[in-house]
Structure formats: structure tokens, C-alpha cells
User: What shape does this take?
Amino acid sequence: MRITSLLFDAFLKCATKCHLRSLGEIGAGNEYAEWVRGRDESYKREAARALQETVPATERVVAPPATVNLKAAQWRLALDLVAETSESSADSPVSESQPNEEAHGLGAPGSEQLLESRLHAVERVPSEGRGKPAQFVPIRFVFRNKLTKDDRLLLAFDTLVLSQVLGRAISFGKIIHGDDHATLKVKTSDLVGEVRKRVKKVAALLSSTSPPDLVLNRHCAECEFQARCRKIAVEKDDLSLLALMSAKERKKLHSKGIFTVTQLSYTFRPRRRPKKLRDKREKYHHSLKALAIREKKIHIVGSPELKIEGTPVYLDVEGLPDRDFYYLIGLRIGNGESAIQHSLWADTVEDEGRIWREFLAILETVEKPVLIHYGSYESTFLQQMTEQYDTPPDGSSVAKVIRITMNLVSFVFAQVYFPALSNGLKEITRWIGGDWSAGICTGLDCLVARYRWEEKRDSVTHAQLVNYNAEDCLALQRVSNEVARICVGRDHNPQRDEKVVNSDSLKSDLPFRLGRTVFALPEFDYINKAAYWDYQREKIQLRHGQKRPSKPMRKRPRRKLHINETIKLAPLASCPSCRLLDIRTIRRNHRIVRDLKFGRAGVKRWIVKYVRRHYRCDSCGAKFADQVKEWPPHREGPGLLAYVVYQLVELRISQREIGRSLSDLFGVILPRTTVFRLKSRAAKFYSQTCAAMRRSLVVGRVLHIDETSICIEGEREFAWVLCNQDRVVFLRTETRNGSFLKELLEQFGGVLVTDFYAAYESIPCPQQKCLIHLIRDLNDDLLKEPFNCEMKALAREFGGVLRGIVDTIDRFGLKTRYLHKHRLVVGRFFRDLSKQVYRSETAIKYQQRFEKNRDTLFTFLDHDGVPWNNNTAEHAIKALATLRRAIGGMSTQTGTDDYLVLLSIYETCNYMGVSFLGFLLSDEKDIHAFAQSLRGRRWRTQTSQPDGLPPDVIPDTGSQP
Assistant: This one.
């Protein structure tokens, strides 16, 4: 693997650019990139010519062969020298004469990458004495007057390559840059560590079989691959399209499963601000920006007021940042057709002071001028001009205007969200209907045009620059007027304009809400009814050979007076140590156990007092007590434990309210800490049951998975549900990253039923995507675009295919021998879909979605007993959501894990059709065994005791948690 300086330079700008250059791809073209390339080459020739004049012809070489031995060189200056490492040079040991080489990491053995750099120039400094080697100084030519960190890192890369070739460290290099060919000496030894890290990243990128994640950044405007990358980003709806979003913010959203602008738009939740923060500025919401783009409407936050008290003066300045030279000042005074445009032009740096004085003179003629600009470039211009040239007298109106300006971008930021990908003046202007004439359209085009004008001094380029600046002033006026109109319209009627939305008026639309869904097509409504959980269990599964579970009867317990029972442990007759009878009682102690006793007639308080004696042997002196094994380990009995867990999990009653109900109904006072301890005690007892159910699920034929967010002490985490038709297990993770599923389902050989979350796609097993999710998405988009004929036709065709399959399932169940015939219809649907050419974005999106998930939409046709929806998991998620509301997000991680264990037991009991309370009161840990034991006695108990509790709440006494 060979890493060149060209690839390293590209990687400093963008990983995708480095990858494309390594493949030898050529960009579609970028005028600024081509101009930079030409300027760079001409500057190299000019700087090399000037450098050659300082060295005699006999002591300089140009483009020496790459195989030349640099250590034996006699020249003082080499131009265009290619330095490349080989395996021998990369692994060669560090010279002992350079003690600091290994400390700097230069030329150290073990380098794995082969490096190559085309050095602009190398200066050879003869040795200072006998036994000391000559010094080599790499030189790089940069045409810019201002250097960047990337220029220094490129010089450090040259130094690294040259060091490995020579086998000794080079501690510094030189950069010749700018119009005056200034020389900067750079200590490269401080940068080599960072260069080595970047080289490792480049090596990993080049050795990878997949391209890097495409991310748009600031360099895109200067890159020859700009059009290609932007097209791909738009197709993917990538988050990097939002120019104001940082890499850290994107990474955080990716960890939550949000990868597109459209996904981000659904995460905005309007919130009421506290009174103490109402006077402070609202933070910027990327989700609201995405919402504005999706709905193509302006969204405003708070109560922005744009007050221009005086005559507006719209200011736009053009300059050369590399030289700190401002050559064009544009002023547009007033509004409408009466506005006056001024363009102040400077041919040279000497004319800069002149146009500044003309600018001040114009401001003096304006009555109550208000200077309006867009961005910080004009603020820097005003500050530098006042420091460098004439400053208006203190107290004058012009001095006040210059000191207090209106930066429109600061006003728009976090208050007015235009449906544009950035807050750039040009993007906003184009959205409200403005545009720029052909020729110069961007700031980089303007920069190139100015340099070309300096070379040719032609009037056409001059006119284009002046016209571009005037159009910028006009665009600034349009944006200012639009913002003012929005603010005025909001004060009178927030929703007067259909294109303007007040964020305070938005209603919180939860993505997962209970209730009936209104469908756009009757086929979808029919299919949705067939997906109800009860419908599937009581109709489809009965045809598949499963017996409908009977629901246990429930009776309200009646309050009775308590009964006290005293249990005295059997006394001992002899000493357990010496076996002699010479023992005597020294004291007694007791333990009160609070319990609830469940019977056929109801529930009553049951308090048991355990008494035991403590003895001492007069012969051996040993001390001991009555049968310790019979001593109760807890002060709360199993009935009370079952009642508390039943109230917490099945009835979703808070811990505080449970203590109150026990006090009111039974006279038992339990603090919240005791309730928490009882919950943990039960969770620990049933943890093995959950582990066994999880192992059973992993080796099953069908597995449903879904996930939802939970709040733990104010932090967002995620709960996952794994289930089939009769077992449910909940798990918790700190993030939504589904990498743990790979290890968990490593031995799973069945069919995995999931939604469309991308994390499930990495699991190597047959998968069935939930078609109800797909139908809901289709239905939502149909309701948003009721006149989209392409979407209607696509949805109707898919609905017809799925309705025929659902009819077959309704008649014969989920059996392959009946469903396999629909494979022909499904194949015809996909063939017709691939031939369609859609024009609407929504239809194209769904066409791509169907093609992407082609192999996972109809897997159930080839497997017995595999449902076409994930409602089994969603039903369990609903129970978790109900419990989540009861908890209120204040539980700890340990407390939440306990809840998930107990909820797994409850939902499994529910799926098996047995009583959760009855299972808690039994001495069983296996729910399936418990359900089997109740079958033979349920009917007899219910008929013989019609007024009692159901049989599965009549416990047999035994070991309890």
C-alpha cells in the first residue's frame, strides 16, 4: 500500500476525496478548483525559478531520479524530487548518530505503510564537521499569503518521507509562500505525531473494501467532486446537507438511529420555555430546520421583531481575504424602486482608503441611516477600516451607525427557520424568489474573477463583479423585507400566511400513539383489522392448531379482621456439639412476619409470630438456637410479596400508592424502601426464569424483536423485547445500537420478524419485515399527498397483493402449502414496479424502498407459522409503554432491570393465558409447567366454587421468593 502526498492532501480535506483519488476518478469539474490548480502550478514554477537563482548551476539539480542515493548527494538544491520509501528503507534502523530520531518517531522500524512524496524542493546543508552528516531541509511552495494547518501538515509529511528514506530524523522544513515569496521555518518534529495518526487513517481507508461515509463539509465548494457528492447526499437525504450541523451532533443523532433530514424532522417537539428563560435567546434546533425543509414552510420561534427605525442602508463588501484587501463596497439605500445603488471600486490596495472615505461621505448624506449586512465579514471590514483609516468623530451620527449595525443573519439565527439547507443569503434569497444573473454566482467565483481582472484589466469582468455585488445588496434587501413581513404578520395573525408556521402552535405528534388509524384506502383498513393481536390469537392461531387460552375470573377481595398465629420452633433436647443433655435456655427472641393470606373467599391480613429459644451448654459452653433453617429470612411473607408485585406490574400502581392501599385495606404499613426491596427480591427470584425463556426464544423457529426508548434518571436509554407466541423477554441497553443482537442471536436459525430499523439487517438469518409498518407509512404519505396519482396506484397495487394473501391466511392459517401460490403474484408485482418510471419524489422513494427490502417483505410465504407483521412484539411494547408512564422516568438502572424481569414474567403469563397473580403465589418458576398443572383443575374449581377466586390464585404452600 503506497500513500502519496496527493492522497494525504486529499484526506486532510475529506476522506471521500481521498478515496476517489485513490481509485483514479476524475471530478466533473469545478471552476475554482481548476483555478487553484493552475495558480498553484504557476506559483511553483515562479518560486522554483527564483530559488534557483540563489544557487550556482553546478550545485543544483532538477527532477533527480528516484533511485539516487541521497546520502551521497553533492548538490545544494534539488527541485521536484520524488522521495519514496521501500520495505528496506521503512524497516531500516535509526542511525545512532541521531539520538532524538526515535523520540520523534521518524524513521523508526516497523513502519507498515509505503510513503511517497513529490517534494517541491530540498535544500542540502553541508556537514558542520567531520563525522556529522549533511542536513536536508524540505521546502514547499504555497501561493497563498496566509498559511493553514494543512500546509504545515503537508510539509511534515514531506519531512516524514524524507526522514525514512535517509534513515535519520529531520526536525524542520521551510514554506515559501505569498506574493513576496516570504519564507517560514516550520518545526516539523512537533507535527510528526499527528501526521503518523493521519497516515494510519489513510491506510485504513485505502485497505477497506467499502467507501467511507459521505459527509459534506466546507471544502465541498472548492472540490472537483462537489456535484457528485452533493447528488449522492441529496439522494440519501443525508444529515450533512444541513450546513450548520457539526460532526459531533451528527454522530449523536446516528447513535439514535437518525440518518436523514426527513427522519430528523419528525423529532422536533415544541416545548414551553420556563419563565426564567423567556428573556434569553432560544437555542438553534436542527430538527426544526429539518421540519421547515420537509414542509417547505417558514417556521418562527418566539416573538422576533425586526425594527428598522430610519433609512435602511444595505451593505455588502467584496474583498480578497488572503491579502486583507477590500476592493468593492456596495451600498443600497432605501427600499423599492426608489432605492439607490452605490458601487465603490478600488483598483489597488492604495485605493482602499479612498473608497472608505467615499463610503463615509455617502453615509453622511443619508437621514438616520441604519446599516444592515449579512454575516460577520462586513463587521470585520468596518472594524479594520476604522483602525486603519480615517475614523468619524466620536458622537457623530456616522460613528454611531458604524458602531451599531444590524447583522441580519444573527437576527434570523434560531428565530426564523427558512426551508433552505443553510442560512446562507443566496439559498434563502432563491427560496423567496430571487436569483443571480449568469456569470458570477458565488463568492468563490467572485474571488477568481477579481484575480483574473488583475491579470487582464478587462471591463467585462469589472462589470460582472459590480453587478454581482449589486445583486447581493438587492438580495439582502429582499430577505430583510421578508423577515420584517413575517414578524408583522405574526403579531396580527400567526397563521395568516400559509407559508409561515409559528412553532408555538405546533401540536406534539407522538410517533407511537394508541387509537384507531384512519386509512386512505379500504384495502389498508381491511388488512389492518386482520393484524389485531386478539384477532390473530383467537382466530388465526386456532386454525394453526393452538387452543384458545381461557381468561381467569377475578373477584374483588373483601376486608376481614386479622388473625395472629404464633409458631414456636421445636425445642432442642441436647447440645449439637457435645450431644449432652446439660443445656439451659438463656433467652428467647421472636420475628413478626407480615403476610397476606389468599383463599377462596378473599384475601386477609395474616401476621405470624415466630419464636425461638437460645441455649447454652453447661458442659462445653457452646451457644446455639432452635432450628435456624425454619427461621423466616424475611419480615414479609410470600403472599404480601405477590400482592405488591401484582400491584406494581399488572395494575401499574406506584410504590407510594401501594403502601397507602396496604395501610387502608389491611393495616399493614410498608414504606417505599420496603416496596422497592420486595420488587428486587422478586426480580432476583425470577431472573433464572427470564434467562431460561431467553434461551428458549433464541433456539425457536420464529422470533419477534422491537425496541422503544425509556427514561432512566433523566437519561434516555432503550428497552428491547424478544418474544414469540407464548414467551416474552425484555432487555435494556444504554444506546439504540443493536450490535449486541449479533452475539445474542448467533445460534438463531429461525425467522426474525422486525420493523425496518437498520440495526436488524446485520443479523444473519431469514427476516420478515413488518408489513403493517409499511402500510402505515404508505397511508401517511397518501393522506399528505391526496392528489399524487402515482402513489395511489402503487399503494393500491400493493394493497391488492397483500389483501389476497390475508384472505388466504384468514381461511387456512399461516401454512406454506396454501401461501406459496402467492409467490407468482409477488414476483409480478416487483417486476412491474421495477419497470415503472415515477416523477414524484415520494413514489421514487417507495420504489427504492420496495427494491431494497425485496427479500424480506414476503419471507412468511416460505415458512409455516411466520406472521407478516410484528404486532406480537408491539403488543408487548404497549405494556412496557404503560408501565413506563407509571414509573415516570425516575427509576434507576437497577430498578428498571427489575421492572423488566417482572414485566417479562407478566407478559409471558398473559401470552400463555394464565393468571400472573396465581403464578406469583405458586411455588413454580416455570410458567409453562404452571400452565400445564392448572388445566385439569380449572373447570372443576370454577364449577364447585363459583363465588371464590379463580383456581390459579389458590396457592399450594411451598418455597417462595
